[in-house]
Structures are given as C-alpha cells and as structure tokens.
Hints:
469 residues; mainly alpha; tRNA binding; ligase
Amino acid sequence: MSAEIVTRFAPSPTGYLHIGGARTALFNWLYARGRGGKFLLRIEDTDLARSTPDATAAILRGLDWLGLDYDGEAVSQAAGAARHAEVALQMLDAGNAYKCFSTQEEIEDFREAARAENRSTLYQSPWRDADPATYPDLPFVIRLKTPTAGSTIIHDEVQGDVTIRNDQLDDMILLRSDGTPVYMLAVVVDDHDMGVTHVIRGDDHLNNAARQIGIYTAMGWKVPVWAHIPLIHGPDGKKLSKRHGALGVEEYQAMGYPAAGVRNYLARLGWSHGNDEFFDDSQAKEWFDLSGINKSPARLDFKKLENLCGQHIAVTDDAALLHELQAYFAAAEKSPLSKPQKDGLMLAMYCLKDRAKTFPELIEKAEFVLATAPLEMDEKAAKMLDAVSRGILGALTPQLQNASWFKDELEAILNRVAEENGTKFGKLAGPLRAALAGRTVTPSVFDMMLVLGRDETILRLNQAAAFEG
C-alpha cells in the first residue's frame, strides 16, 4: 500500500493572499484531495519584522472564500524555532555542519578579493575543517557542509531533472550567531516533521531545492517529490503586478467573481486536461496531476475568467448563489439585503443567472426586484416613457386586472394592446422595461411581471403612466 499523500501551502504573512499564491494553494489542495491525502497549512512567519496577524487573517479569509479547506490547525513556523535549532545542532554533532567564526568584514574582504581576481564569490570559510581546539570565544554561525565535488540533481515533476554543480553552492548558514534558525532550515524541518510528501510551489523556489536537498541528505531524511510551477504573468507577458489589476484574492471576491469560477479558472491557469475548460471541483480533483502542468508561465486573462464565472453562476443552485451573493455584498461593503429582497431574488434567480458573468451584472439584472416603487428612472428609461408610451401603459393596466398570471396570457394581452395602438410588442417592450425596472437592460418583460406579481406590476405601470420626466 502506497504512503498517504501530504501536501502543504506555506505563505508568508506579509500581505494579502496573492492570486499566484492562491493558485499554488489550489494545486496542492487538488493533488491531495484527489488522492485521499492531506492538505496542510503552514504560516511562514519567521520574518517577525514583516509578518503581521492582519496578513495571517487575510490569508485565512482568502482560503476560506476559495473553499480550500486544510487538515488540522495552521502551523506557525516561528513557533518551531527550538526544533529547527535542535536539527542544526544534530548536524553539527554528526560532522555535517560546522561552526564559523568569520565576521561580516572578513566575508566581504574575501568577496572583494574574489571579484578582483575574477573568481567565484561563494564564501569558502576557513573554519570548515578547523580543529575545535582552535575555536575562539567569539560569536559564530553554524554552516552546512555542502559537498564540494559532484552535482545535486533536483528530480522535478514539472521542470524535469535540474542539475546544479555542488561547487556552485555555498556552505549555507543554518543558525545565525544569535542562535535563531534561517528560513531555509525551518522549511526543511517543518516539511519533514509534517510528513510532507510532495512540495508543489512556485518555480522561484527551484534553486532553493538544491540547498534544501543538502539538509535532507545530511539528516538522512527522505527527499519529497518536487513540483516547481511557473509563475503567473500579466496579459502582456510580464511579471504580474498592480498595473495588471487585482492581485489579492479578496479583491476578486469584492469585484463579484464567484469562488467556483475562480477555482476553475486558476486550475486552468498553467494546467490542462485535454481541451476541458469548464469543470467542477469533483472533476478537477479527479483529473488534476502534476504531468499536466505547463513549463512556461501562464498569462492572466480576465475575459476567460469572466467567461468561466458566468458558466458557474448559471449552474449554481439558487440558494447557494444567494448565500454567496450575501457574502459578496459584505466583501464589497454594500448594504446587506433585506428579507423581501432575498425573497425576491430567490423568485427571480431563474431569469437572472443566464448571461451574468459576475455578481454586479446579476445585481444589475435584478434591480427590478431589489428596488421598491416608486422607481427612480435612469436616463435611458426616462426617454422611453414619452407621452405615447405612457398612454399605452395607461390603457394596458385595466386589461391586466383580471388576467390569469401566466406567460401565455400575458403575452396575448400585451400583443393585443400593442396592435390596438398601432404598434408591435417589440416597440412596447422598451417602455415596459422602463416601467417595471426603471432601466432598459433587464430580464424579459414577462419574467419580470411573473416575479413581481399582479399587484406590484400594475402599481409600477400606473406610476410609469403618470411619470413626468
């Protein structure tokens, strides 16, 4: 029986959950969940000067909105400092690490001389093979003894085998002179102690893997499976930055993108399964594998994102959609929906979901059921309600008083009234939209009448007939 798959997402809490970080988390989540494994969360808060509780909270909110649930509690890397130091001391005792008493000035002098002589500036500590009897009573760091010959091979599921000559790697510091562990050591110890089997992360960490393999080897630990994924670029092919638009996951929620659509889009951003574009979570978990990840950077494309989001809105259960709409209102700092508005939305959802790519588009279509009479007319709607149109609306309302409230009969009545007034229903539709919604871009006239009901429809038509722009 094969060992349980364990993946992890390990963000630094120095800001919001970046869209690139969200995709890394998603890939880890999909890989673990699709194989019955564990997906763990570690907050890499060792940079105490830059790490903040607010940033940690933002990361947790972003993961929660995206629906990326993790197993157990989130682990704080800073809390494990004593364990990280303990491992460094074990390597020291085993002869795989050494004390280095070189000062910053001595290291800089070495590098200046190396530059002048056009040789490698990788620091070669004179303390690497020094006799402990010669150790001075001075501050020291603990360095890893990196092999000086041969090569380190990173067997990577995305990048293939990457070979780095050991003479290109320095003797990495493990413990600083104040006894605190460095990030590179902490990552390896945490991944080992958490049982991480697959490290799926951005390819900006690829070179780190070679140095981290040195720690695994020194400790006699099993090296995890590596998968370094290309970063996300903007539509112009350049590194993603603020100029390309939203970067934080919470911004996407506040802009009204549904979480399922964002998950679907991020899964397709740099990974593919044949020609499949639109899929749900269960399909993504079943299909996702490391071999489908592209080697080249993916480009953010807001049109594709909106397209997929529209498809997800269309197939989402009405109650679930209302729940997410309410969360969107909160994220966008809009006034919460009232009970009548929520009831109205549930009635109208069937005619709102199609062709709405974002929640703002859906809300725009839903204005007729969210607003209360008397309606405020926008500029285009006000132009529709000229004297002739108002007269026809006035003639229509008595005929609706006793109509059975079904689409076929309403359609027959509206067509008849249009004909009696020397026009066609198509010409009457604009004024009717204005009367029922206060705007001209709406669901169909019949859907609005059915959702609003007889009394509210007649009230709005009467008010529109008396409208004086």
